[in-house]
Description:
- This protein has helices at 6-11, 21-24, 45-56, 67-81, 96-107, 122-130, 152-160, 181-193, 250-263, 270-282, 284-308, 334-343, 370-392, and strands spanning 32-33, 90-93, 113-116, 134-137, 141-142, 148-149, 163-169, 197-201, 225-229, 243-246, 313-314, 322-326, 346-347, 349-350, 361-365.
- The protein is α/β, with parallel strands linked by helices.
- The chain folds into 2 domains: 6-42 and 284-386, Aspartate Aminotransferase, domain 1; 48-282, Aspartate Aminotransferase, domain 2 (3-Layer(aba) Sandwich), CATH 3.40.640.10.
- The strands form 4 sheets. Strands 2-10-9-8-7-3-4 form a 7-stranded mixed sheet, sandwiched between helices. A 4-stranded antiparallel sheet has the order 11-12-15-14, with helices on one face. It has a two-stranded parallel sheet with strand order 1-13.
- Helix 4 packs parallel to helix 10 (270-282).
- The model has no long low-confidence stretch (mean pLDDT 97).
- The structure holds pyridoxal-5'-phosphate.
- Pyridoxal-5'-phosphate (PLP) is lined by residues 37, 95-97, 121, 169, 173, 201, 203, 230, 232, 238, 243.
Amino acid sequence: MHTFDESYFDAGLDRRGTRCEKWDGTEKESVLPLWVADMDFPSPPEVAEAIAVRALHPTYGYTLVLPDDTRALSSFWQRRHNLTIQDEWVMMIPCVVTGIRLALLALTKPGDGVMIQSPVYGPFRFSVEATERRLMDAPLKRDDAGRYSMDLDAVEKQLQAGAKALVLCNPHNPVSRAWKREELQALIDLLARYGAYLIADEIHADFVYAPEQFVPVLSLAQKNVLSLCAASKTFNLAGLEQAAMLVPDEAVRAKINTEMERAGVRSGNLFALEGTRAAYEYGDAWLDGLMRYLDGNRKHLTALVKQELPQAVLTPMEATYLGWLDLRAYGMNCEELMARTLKHGVQFTEGTFFGEGGEGFLRVNIGCPRRNITEGIHRLKEALDEAVEEKAHGVD
Ligand SMILES: Cc1ncc(COP(=O)(O)O)c(C=O)c1O
């Protein structure tokens, strides 16, 4: 029996040599990786047990997706987010980004305008481009404290200019917003007035800090709206490649089904199904412990930034384990920031991955033992101090 307390998450784990993109994909072993969005904690123990039990049955033929797989997902969403999901809404897919692309292919035509709200997770932009739709940005607004909000006037302008769909990040990566009911409702009403689709990526649903709350878009509207979700971010299972689309609108579902048939996309990885079901069924205590720990991490990061980097602005973290750090006061673009921080042994995600509005920003992954945040910010400070010093002395 485990206790998912601070010491459990403080322990972390060595991930090198496990095909781990975050740790094995860094340039040098000495670099501390605080970039790609996964966490340096063990997944809930029941996940490894479920996969191991199945692995010991020594043959791995074609797999049945069972009604229990769908039910595990829907009862988790009922428990955690108070959303009732009908079995027929659930379409299993390998990855959330696959789902975004399928939705774009199914619901829009080549050349159609698709909105994003930058700065936002880069693959939204890449998905619009790869499917040969027209990228239409309705950038978020930012206040002096670094808090972001939706610009509905910008959304309406793009709708008037012909946008057919919006890809929403709820909660938002990288600006850590847990969108409020009123904000989502206003957006949904606006899209509905123009008959545009809402494709909501809700992969970060479980990472919202009290007193904020996650509001599922499907609790507000179900026509022309779909949600993409996964246990992969919540329980650190991204390597398993298992996600789902929740599609209450029958007409939308039919179009997506056609597109899935056409592309031959199907989901049914044996180990992914075993691991995902175990996480949804048995992961609650682990997830509660994780959220307490991450809440401590976000407070730690906030205090560290204030103390060590007085010129930086950390966007208030309402959600996700990803901090959005404005370093523009130090006068460097992302290319220089990345080169200097790597030289000092820490890797963040460059702000421009999230669009032009991210120039001069870095994203900090705090899904790790707290001491790694301390070390990462310490290395960042060294890099920035060195840059300030060199610039003062005219060294390029
Ligand atoms: C908003 C968002 N959507 C999707 C993903 C990736 O999901 P998947 O690996 O299932 O495509 C991420 C990963 O960081 C993300 O932050």
